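Tip: read the tokens left to right.
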């Protein structure tokens, strides 16, 4: 089949007012040969019309066909040349294979970024400790009302979810433990399994994860929103230290309430384990309590609770730090809120692992 040339004659005004109709007409043009564009009867041509014509020429020439323009005035030809030269071009860059030095550079940058982040968190921890010491020297600057408010938000309102979570964890431990220990006729040791797991590890760890999810995000969102609305600048203008007014009450509330929540989680977990042991193994609550008191060292309770202040500091410092990194847009607020939750949970788990290694080395 031979090539079919096309001749297109345009007339009238090719301006921004008629460019939509012009585009529809040119888009229907189909030709397998050369295309000749006649502009003899065109009265007026502006940039929009020239853009459509240049787009047609690029489409035709891109298909390997010949394109020419006849009957064009010097002014129109000059405009077409300007539009052609101004047409954006995309340079294709061949993907460069990463060498070993490139990979080392990426790793180095990541490590440097991580070290910088840890230093920033350390500086915020130091800022909190400095302002806390200042509040002891100048008690009138301490915001007791704010502390009570945040204790309620961080602690009291978290009791239902923490208690329910720990109760269900106790139930799951008792059920799974009884299933495995029944094979060896050692069902009674499920009490020791539940007690040590909850008192030593799971009670405070899962409580900290829940608090990190609800509290770190709340700290970041509150402080970040204040920064977006320039309330922090207004506080500084009024002579109010944002660290004293915002950081100290929030982090101190976590330090006070997280150990209490840990105790509630321990009690709730033991209750859940006792009920499941009673239902599944026939271990009465009295026998469960006796076994718990006689065979569980109180040191397990202290091992769990000694982690609480460290976890509270991690959650509070990360939440406040992320809030201060929020920029003046909603996308930044959402990103930093999400980051604060992820980072605080990750840091809590890492700290718990370090505590476990330390206590194992110390024989505690």
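Filled-in amino acids:
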């Amino acid at each position: 089949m031979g090539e079919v040339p096309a001749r297109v004659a345009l007339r009238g005004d090719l301006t921004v007012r008629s460019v939509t109709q012009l585009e529809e007409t040119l888009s229907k043009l189909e030709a397998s040969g050369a295309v000749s564009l006649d502009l003899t009867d065109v009265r007026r041509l502006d940039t929009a019309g020239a853009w459509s014509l240049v787009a047609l020429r690029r489409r035709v020439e891109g298909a390997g066909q010949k394109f020419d323009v006849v009957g064009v005035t010097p002014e129109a030809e000059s405009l077409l040349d300007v539009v052609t030269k101004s047409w954006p071009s995309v340079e294709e860059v061949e993907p460069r294979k990463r060498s070993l030095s490139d990979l080392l550079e990426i790793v180095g940058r990541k490590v440097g970024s991580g070290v910088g982040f840890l230093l920033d968190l350390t500086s915020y921890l130091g800022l909190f400790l400095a302002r806390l010491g200042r509040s002891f020297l100048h008690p009138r600057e301490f915001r007791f009302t704010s502390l009570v408010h945040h204790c309620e938000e961080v602690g009291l309102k978290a009791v239902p979810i923490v208690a329910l979570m720990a109760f269900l964890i106790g139930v799951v431990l008792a059920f799974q433990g009884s299933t495995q220990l029944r094979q060896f006729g050692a069902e009674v040791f499920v009490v020791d399994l539940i007690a040590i797991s909850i008192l030593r590890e799971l009670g405070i760890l899962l409580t900290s994860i829940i608090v990190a999810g609800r509290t770190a995000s709340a700290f970041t969102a509150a402080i970040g929103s204040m920064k977006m609305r320039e309330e922090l600048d207004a506080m500084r203008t009024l002579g109010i230290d944002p660290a004293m007014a915002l950081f100290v009450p929030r982090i101190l509330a976590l330090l006070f309430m997280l150990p209490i929540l840990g105790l509630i989680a321990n009690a709730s977990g033991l209750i859940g384990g006792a009920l499941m042991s009673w239902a599944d193994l026939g271990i009465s609550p009295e026998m469960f309590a006796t076994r718990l008191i006689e065979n569980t060292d109180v040191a397990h309770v202290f091992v769990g609770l000694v982690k609480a202040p460290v976890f509270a500091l991690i959650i509070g410092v990360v939440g406040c730090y992320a809030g201060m990194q929020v920029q003046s847009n909603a996308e930044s607020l959402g990103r930093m809120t999400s980051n604060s939750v992820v980072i605080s949970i990750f840091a809590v788990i890492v700290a718990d692992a370090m505590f476990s290694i330390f206590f194992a080395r110390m024989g505690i």
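The domain at 6-86 is CATH 3.30.750.24 (Transcription Regulator spoIIAA). The mean pLDDT is 85.
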